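Hi D.,

Good news: the full-assembly prediction came through. Inputs first.
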Amino acid sequence: MARGLRFLVLILSVASICDAATFNPISDSHRSAALELFTPTDGSLKSLEETFEALRTFEVLGIDKKSEIKGYTCPTVVDTLWSPSSALKDLFQALRVNGVLKCELNDEVFAGIASRLKDNVKDANSLLDLHYSIGSLKLIKGQTAEVDVHLEDADGIFRAIKALSQSDGRWRFSSNNPESSTYAAGIALETLAGVVALASHDIDQSLMDTLKQDILKLFDGIERYDDGSCYFDEKLVDAQGNWGPVSASSSIVRGLTSFATSTPESLNLPGDRVLCLAKFFLGIGVPGNFKDLYHQIDALASLENNRQVISIPLILSLPSSVLSVTRKDQLKVRVNTVLGSAVPPLSVKLMQIFTSGSKDASIIDQELKFDPETKLHVLDALPENVDVGKYIFTFEILLHDPEHKKIYATGGRTKVSVYVTGVVNIDQAEIAILDSDLGNVETKKRLDLTGENTIALSANHLQKLRLTFQLTTPFGRAFKPHQAFLRLRHENGVEHIFLVRSSGKNFEITLDFLGLVEKFFYLSGGYDIQLTVGDSVMENSFLQPLGYLDLDLPDAPEKAARPPPQPVDFSSKYGPRAEITHIFRSPDKRPPTELSFAFLGLVLLPLGGFLIGLLLLRVNLRNFPSSTLPAFFAISFHIGIAAVLSLYVVFWLKLDLFTTLKALGILGISLMFTGHRTLSHLASTSAKLKSA
Amino acid sequence: MARSSTAKDAQALIQSLRSAYAATPTNLKIIDLYIIFAVSTALIQVVYMALVGSFPFNSFLSGVLSCVGTAVLAVCLRIQVNKENKEFKDLPPERAFADFVLCNLVLHLVIMNFLG
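Then the structure:
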């Protein structure tokens, strides 16, 4: 019998080791994420729906942005509520935003909308239409007392919504859509809560009973993770991909809490279900998109502020799950609600400690001391048998007031994985060269593995290399690290890694070079020796060079294997390329400016000579046409030539060839015309002279 | 004795050349002057290149070719305008001048393009 019991305990402990995970309550990282994700683009948020989600998230997280958002959102809200053509969904979202912002509106608006919504409720046949209409009516009820929003035929509406439910507790969006959805179940519950709240008389009790059965069925289909969290999965996929486990679970939580709040009766939901849902929402951390963040925060807020109709989950978390025995860290535990607020008086007990990888647990049953200043439960000293390593600690939360046990869900024992780290002592490190046959010690050097070593050894193929050291934990027990490797690296890059084996505290490796010559590819020469000892709980893990070994091996026989080609260094293959420095031709040496100017003057000199020569030859302009028209053509001809030459100068300075040729074409035509007229005039004049 | 006679001969030669050239029509003299102007400008540029170096080589080439080209064109003009040349008797000098202007414009378009 006793043996059977022990076996059962063993199985239970193995099962419980798997589900140790830490869930931390909502913290400042959520606040900064919210501020980052809900940033208005171009001065306003995209839609009223998004605005509401932002407002709700900020409200829960205690961020005051209301007055800022009110400025640019209220006009939209008022417009939407006044407009007779607004869609149902827009009305609903506007009323939700107004519920938070309290924009200036009179009862007349609400009365108008309420009568319209009531008509809609009668004709509606899809779940979303009913959800928007009834949700809006409920919101109006909350925003003004003057408008009558009571539903006459509440039983009928209740039945209409209930008709869409499925046998597994899920809901359909409309009667002509056969697919059922978990998200829709949450919506339906929320709508039914609205119907109950708006009903002018009590709802038929049998209807309520069947609904409670539906809710329990829904919880039967809950999915579980190994770490103790659970969620509602969404089978139906929408086109935008908006629905997933987060939105579905959030929708269920919202529907459930609002339904539970609206009815006086208890739903009798087990506390651990609520706690595991809370763990799911905390387990997703800080979501990267605002929809998920809203769903997470809203669901957690619904769980926390549910007016005690369902259990309020309490979350046990460790500020630090790494404890150092060298620094004598204390084990600290914090208990909060999901949103990180204060909890009723309670005490925390450390029940069991499991060593990771081994099946036995040590029973502790020790109460942690509560520090009222830091609101932490502290264990002064770790139990005796806790050495460095990975452990799973089991805690239990004990509420002081027995009444509170009905209100809060603590989920029994909570398992948290804890790393206990410490500085591992390294002693008696030695490296020696031995003669192979007799085992005589040739050379022996002590090593200081906590400091730097630069030993130089030499050996041939008839000798052995032996490395020994001891590892002990701070409590003097043997310590076996994850990694203990000796690495020999030849000058040309070929490296060999050997595992250092241990027996108890002692670690020893002996390399017999005679047996290793083949493995070493007969490569004589210098080898770098490197020792790696590492573990996640070892605070002084190291990877350090020990020194240098000059190995003398026989020459390789012809058939010996060649050393493998060295692997390509990936950092050089995919890393940045070497920077290219562009070498430009250095500009040629220029002459001094004075010389160039002197030659410019010299080049102009022949021009002066030419002009003087013209004067000496007594050149005149007598032949220049004197009558008006030919003179005009002659002048235009000369101006034309000058224009073409100046065009060339401009071409040289800035124009391109095509522009120049276009301009040249136009100039050329006029030049040809004037030139022809001028020259033919001159020709006719000279012909007249000749004939005369 | 021989030297003085050589000098005298040279003097006589130059004398006769000058007198012969004096008879050349003025318009041909103008063209000659123009050719001398162009060729001497080209020579100065060549001297500059010899002294300083040919660094912007295309600029140097275009400068020299501009001068040489225009000198060659002027020589052609001179041949066509000269009345002694029976070959071009029917060609009016105005037509020759028009050719000269056109060729110069085309030549300098190329030169400017090459100048860089």
